[in-house]
Design brief:
162 residues, mainly beta, Elongation Factor Tu (Ef-tu), domain 3, two-stranded antiparallel sheet, 8 strands, 28% strand, globular, binds S-adenosylmethionine
């Protein structure tokens, strides 16, 4: 059964980002973009033990993306790429994934840094980033290897400065 998969949000992401084209394109370019993850009361018990982790995966719904496209121009390069070879929001299933820094847990509110999600983004899941599982030294990074670090940093911040 693949039709009609429905997820309900477990919370909402509160950030200072209101305009997509002024929002950093990844957490690595969003140092100093602090904000809150507000978890709904019925999921509060699931936050137990989370404060022991310095970084979290946030899984969320791109609620303000446009129509899905299979070919996109990524933010860092002026070339058409298959959407699944990019992190563009306008995907068939508009799911976002960000590794953010957890500052502290205050009840049902997670204070985080390095947000690249717009204010009001519906949150679908939280998972701890675990170095043992998730840290990988890659051999290749596809078309991203054609983009130098300076260019990536300049374009990726989209004007954001701490
Ligand atoms: C390139 S995506 C990457 C997001 C995530 N780190 C990922 O890899 O899935 C980040 C951009 O998506 C856009 N964006 C962020 N939150 C969004 C939302 N809720 N709806 C639509 N677009 C959003 C902003 O323009 C932001 O710069």
């Amino acid at each position: 059964m693949t039709e009609g998969i429905v997820y309900r949000p477990i919370g909402v992401i509160r950030s200072r980002h209101r305009e997509p084209d002024k929002t950093p394109i990844q957490p690595v370019f969003a140092e100093g973009c602090g904000g809150r993850v507000e978890v709904f009361p019925e999921f509060a018990d699931g936050l137990r033990d989370l404060e022991g982790f310095s970084h979290l995966f946030l899984v969320y719904h791109f609620h303000r993306c446009g129509e899905p496209r299979l070919s996109v121009r990524p933010f860092l390069q002026d070339a058409e790429r298959g959407v699944f070879a990019t992190r563009a929001p306008c995907r068939p299933n508009p799911i976002g994934l960000s590794v953010v820094r957890l500052i502290r847990v205050e009840g049902m509110v997670l204070h985080v840094d390095r947000l690249d999600a717009l204010d009001g983004t519906p949150l679908l899941d939280i998972k701890p980033y675990v170095e043992r599982f998730d840290k990988i030294d890659t051999e290749k990074n596809g078309w991203q290897d054609e983009v130098d670090d300076d260019t990536a940093g300049r374009l990726g911040k989209r004007g954001f400065e701490k």
